[in-house]
Write a structure and sequence with these properties.
mainly alpha; Arc Repressor Mutant, subunit A; 3% strand
């Protein structure tokens, strides 16, 4: 079973599935099945993905989408009867790996696994509910990433890999570009010898954000830009709550119960 990558920009084909090409709606169908705690009714999925289509056309489109999902997941993973659809067997996906790492408080693994917004670039303008679901899921997952990355970068573990910190700090800045905290992490990582070439560029980018009002705390950002100690910021440290972390769906699809570790 190949590892399916759903976080970030999906490619036309997935690794190990070069013969399978798929549209946007089968991907959204798969993503929703991965995070739904229970089976989804066929009628609900039809209304979710094809709200404007006739019942006959929506049923046909759903059958085609389920065929593509079966090609992606392999035999025995998807179950669908006349009433409902669900995933049964464990799948290897970056989405479930990310959620599992969050549940265990493994901030490093979570931060490195998060490759970007869920199905980045996918837009379903003819399916309002599905599009709204994607927006909310992307927001939830980005909050989880922000929490994990912040906890990891604040810890400053001795001997931690500087390049790894830089990768995570850049990703955090991209997720929370208005946060002074995320810029502090990035500038600190860039101040290390291995990354000094980019420091001037990023300092200029922060200065431009201050000038154009695209930062949450301009005064704290100005102090940071001048190289002074950052003693005050209006940033709130992100926190994980049970709603964001989800239920036991990720654990079950990875095979077995998981202990949830909260920060």
């Amino acid at each position: 079973m190949p590892r399916l990558q759903l976080l970030g920009m999906p490619s036309p084909t997935m690794a190990g599935l070069g013969h399978v090409r798929f549209g946007q709606k089968p991907l959204v169908l798969l993503a929703r099945l991965l995070v739904e705690p229970r089976a989804v009714s066929r009628e609900a999925m039809m209304a979710f993905l094809w709200p404007e289509a006739s019942e006959a056309r929506a049923r046909g489109s759903l059958r085609q989408a389920l065929h593509v999902v079966r090609e992606i997941t392999g035999p025995g993973c998807l179950t669908a009867d006349r009433q409902s659809i669900s995933l049964l067997n464990p799948l290897v996906t970056d989405l479930l790996e990310f959620l599992s790492a969050i549940r265990h408080g493994d901030w490093r693994q979570a931060a490195l696994t998060y490759g970007g917004p869920l199905l980045d670039g996918v837009a379903l303008k003819d399916a309002t509910d599905a599009e709204q679901w994607l927006v909310l899921e992307r927001r939830r997952l980005s909050r989880l990433f922000e929490t994990a990355a912040t906890a990891l970068l604040e810890a400053r573990e001795p001997g931690s890999d500087g390049m790894t910190r830089l990768v995570i700090a850049r990703r955090l800045r991209d997720v929370a570009p208005r946060s002074v905290r995320s810029w502090r992490f990035l500038l600190e990582a860039l101040a290390e010898p291995h990354a000094s070439d980019d420091l001037c560029f990023e300092r200029a980018a922060l200065g431009a954000r201050i000038d154009t009002g695209q930062i949450d705390d301009p005064q704290a950002a100005a102090v940071l830009l001048e190289g002074g100690p950052l003693t005050r910021t209006t940033d709130r440290a992100p926190r994980i709550n049970a709603d964001d972390a989800g239920d036991d769906r990720a654990a079950a699809l990875h095979g077995g119960e998981r202990e949830i570790a909260w920060p």
